[in-house]
Amino acid sequence: xxxxxxxxxxxxxxxxxxxxxxAFKLTLAExxxxxxxxxxxxxxxxxxxxxxxxxGKLSQLSTTFFANPWYYLLLGLVNPLAYYLxxxxxxxxxxxxxxxxxxxxxxxTLTLMAAVFLGQKIRKQDxxxxxxxxxxxxxxxxxxxxxxxxxDSPLGVGLALLSTLLWAGxxxxxxxxxxxxxxxxxxxxxxxLPFAIxxxxxxxxxxxxxxxxxxxxxxYVGLFExxxxxxLWLSALKSTNNTARISNLIFASPxxxxxxxxxxxxxxxxxxxxxxxxxxxxxxxxxQLKLSKGKSA
Length: 297
Known about the structure:
This protein is mainly α. The chain has 14 helices and no strands. The longest helix is centred in the N-terminal third of the chain and has 27 residues.
């Protein structure tokens, strides 16, 4: 029964994450990246507060934060503030299909950063995985013209890659976090919100021009990219005895996402994006195979 429940949670999370690239583009048609971050963070914070209330964890918020305030301040500044601001700007500059495919290389970035900051060993399989994944990034960024190395938006590609560094860095910081994961994520949003609101006021753009469609899109992003889906994924991992099987569900997400982008917003999916994404996923699979081997050894 638990395995079926875990699979249900996992599939729900993957299907919801598959929709967010489309939601990002619909939202960015009306919001600036910092406006989008601010409103989505408010929505996400409310959703996570409600979840913590029903799980009986609200009382942990203040004690968890004051036990290590500088640590949670740093976590919140990295994610959601810097990570999502940079990711949304990358989506603003690039086709969503390119931005989301490049962002999927974060797991490879994490391997490299873990070697530098945590002293973890990089094995041969990791180097093979890195080669496949970063070759995939180059294929996507150059639209298949690898030898010319010309990018439509060098800044967009750079920001998409920077987002992988920030996301990987966030998880490295999280290795020292002993708090409940939902409480930790909520604290990150609560810490980031004043900074996001300040940046929005500094930018000076109002919200009067936003349509109902824009408000629905940004609410969806707040709920299903930053909030509820994280809890679904955690619940899936918590309920299963086979973490690898649940984790492997994530490989379906970028391909479903490409189909939705083509269908819902009519984005043209360049063949090189699909080929590059296959290379990135191949790298991630090689990395997973290596991890399974290591566990069974």
